[in-house]
Amino acid sequence: MRNIIALVKSERGGIAAISALSLPIILSAAVLGTEGGAWALQHQTMQGAADTAALSGIVAKSTGAALTTQSRAVAAAQGFVHGLNNVSVAVNTPPSKGAYKGRSGAVEIIITQPHEPVLAKFFPAVTINISARAVAIQNPGGACMLALNGAASGAVSVQGSAQVLLKGCDAVANSSSTTAISASGSSLLSVNKAIAVGAIPTSNNLQVTNGIYSAAPLTVDPYATQNFAPQPNGCAQNYNGGNATLQPGVYCNGISLTAGANVTLSPGTYYLDASDLKVAGNATLSGTGVTIVFTSSKGKTYGSASIASNAIINLTAPTSGPTAGIVLFGDRNMPQGTVFKLTGGGAQNWTGAIYLPRANLTFAGGATGGNGCTQIVADTVTFTGNSNLSLSCAGTGTSAMGTQMALLVE
Q1: What is the rounded distance in angstroms from the CA atom of residue 396 to the CA atom of residue 352?
Q2: Could you give the 3-state DSSP secondary structure of residue 148?
Q3: pLDDT tens for residues 90-134?
Q4: Cβ within 8 Å of residue 208, ≥6 positions away
Q5: What are the CA-CA distances from residue 166 to residues 39, 78, 108, 362, 366 (Å)?
Q6: Which residues, at least 6 apart from 22, have a Cβ–Cβ distance to it below 8 Å?
Q7: Alpha-carbon torsion 65, 194, 351, 304, what sign?
Q8: 203 has a pLDDT exceeding 80
Q9: What is the mean pLDDT of the segment spanning 49-70?
Q10: Cα–Cα distance for residue pair 374/363, rounded to 1 Å
Q11: Residue 56 contacts residue 70 (beta carbons within 8 Å)
């Protein structure tokens, strides 16, 4: 009996001794596990700060602001103040390493902060450096389409089976709607960037090369201050249909091409006073150095445009002068939602800006090769047929549209 009691005491003592020896190891493992989670959370927060600081750095470079000052201020706003609590915020342009090392215009942010583990008193030589790195570049592009309406759902929309290719350029909507840009049915909208003040639902109908940017700032209307369209005085010109070469001036009865007609517009400005532009199927309208203005001398009735299927349009805006870069201009006083239908199809080529800030524009057309220069600015834009737009606009007189946006690459 005494032997049994002695054995029990011996085992208890052994267990107690083993427990005493194991306790520091168990506690250390628990502390390290907890601390590892805290390090991971700290790194995640730090990475967010580095990403934001890099993007801000690109903005600073493009606006001429102090790059290092702005980037460090952005990091500081998220709790990482350079020089405080051993925090280092390195700002490098070009980057010091990685795939973009030496690339002019790229911005690299490296945030580092050493941390001493809770168990440092047991391991005095141990210091953990938590670091995060981000690299951003300018994502230039530029918009070839801007919908100005501030609230419309589908301010930019693609319907049916339309295939819309915006070659190397952006689609922008200033609408705050949750569906500011949309593509439905079996349609396709392929763009460099999709940008909206509101939201842009992701779907297989939308293909983007360089990102979707929701909650973006308003994009400035590049032609908002353009004011070259005085009120017409009298009706100096008239057109009765058929083949013709027309001269610039005021047309009070509109310009209406019958089927098969071939009309050339001589260089200059064509004022359609409370009247329409109509091009029937298989008719051809062409001209270089041309601006067509939709206005009203009475300020009440405004015309619009309709281009029928299979019509051929080849119009190029002036490259200089007061109407430089604008091929169609809609008076800002016309009623919001005035309907314009430019649906002639693939043979519809406009070189310059289609500027109809109050219009609900339906469009289908554009250069088949997508190598032209067409800008569209309207209240809303709806694509109902295959369209190709691009911004090969050097020397055309158009104004740049949209802002350069930053792109995280590392």
Answers
A1: 7
A2: coil
A3: 999 999 999 889 888 789 999 998 876 655 555 555 677 888 999
A4: 190, 191, 192, 193, 194
A5: 44, 37, 31, 16, 10
A6: none
A7: negative
A8: yes
A9: 82
A10: 12
A11: yes
